Amino acid sequence: MTNVTDDFLSIVLNETPLLDVRAPVEFEKGKFINATNLPILNDEERRLVGIRYKEAGNSAAIKLAESLIQNEGKEKRVHLWQDYLKKNPEAKLYCFRGGQRSGIAQEWLKESNIDITRLKGGYKAFRNFLMQQSEDISAITPTLILGGRTGSGKTILLNKLQNAIDLEGVAHHRGSSFGSFVNAQPSQIDFENNLAYRLIQFHHKNFTHLVLEHESHNIGRTFIPKPVYDNFMQGELVLLQTPIEVRALITYEEYVLGALKEYALQYGEEGPKKWAQNVQSGLKRIQKRLGNQLYRQLAQLFDKAYSQDTQAEAKTFYLEWIALLLERYYDPMYDYQIKKSPLPVVFEGNTIDVLHFLQHQS
Fold first, then answer.
1. Where are the domains of the chain?
2. Does domain 4-126 fall into CATH 1.10.730.10?
3. What is the largest CA-CA distance in the chain?
4. Which whole number is the average pLDDT over 13-25?
5. How far apart are alpha carbons 117 and 3 in whole angstroms?
6. Strands 4-5 and 118-119
7. Which positions are catalytic?
8. Is-contact 331 242, C-beta < 8 A?
9. Distance between CA 20 and CA 14 in Å, rounded?
10. Cys-Cys link to 118, which of 19, 84, 102, 126 (CB 3.0-4.6 A)?
11. pLDDT in tens, 125-172
12. Whether the Cβ atoms of residue 108 and residue 21 lie closer than 8 Å to each other
């Protein structure tokens, strides 16, 4: 009997390794946590087989696939799968619909005395499960939305809670005009899949509330699916109050020191220059909203900070630049959003008070 499973819940809760035999182009478009792509057909082979399928049907497509792979190609693929399964013996196998490609891979591995379970319905069925679970869980889970002005330390606080999901972390973006990392954000599909994993894992820990940061629908170039976002926004608001000097320092440590380190690791000696160019581009993007006078003032402050010879000298100007940007741009924008927000405010206070409150709502 064919060894298949549709126990997708177990796969999520255990973060089971997954062997994805789809073509690389399919994998890049959308994948799952802990999935490794070792395709049975490369992109060009998949394209040719697809054309043959449309022109002459399934049997002709299978014959073409077999001729493209041939014996040497088969041995190479099986060898790669064997190496992966030695390191991940509990892995499950899938293709797009759980049919021919994963079925053939399963048979080839069986010939090598390796039994592997494949996903019933493949990638498509598993993704449908994840999307439905995201909607269902977000609909029944009370949420506490952590708000606060930019730089308040919301992410730092979230990471101290067991019943929180860091949406910016899942989106790999800091959530502002200057929030991009060196490495690209996940694709939209990957973001949705990863968020679903987090929601399912959260749900099965039996917390009473889910804590999230107060986010817009979009986080960088990814967006929270509308039904899920609407469910999140049925919650209650907790406001974190942090003095401007602390907020400027938190922002400096993350957006300046942390970002410079990240760029240096990625680009070496060119890192600081590339980081500065990215910040200058970020300022340019919001120039119209800043107004020309404030834009020039901020641009000059940043250039002055960046041109200093020592980190200690630069820090003073960076903190001045950050404080001005927070007070004149981000604070009015956030205060307006809070004022018009329909979410009821159930608590507000400093970091210690808010953390204590949220820890007692788990």
1. 4-126, 141-362
2. no
3. 73
4. 97
5. 5
6. parallel
7. 95
8. no
9. 17
10. 102
11. 999 999 999 999 999 999 999 999 999 999 999 999 999 999 999 999
12. no
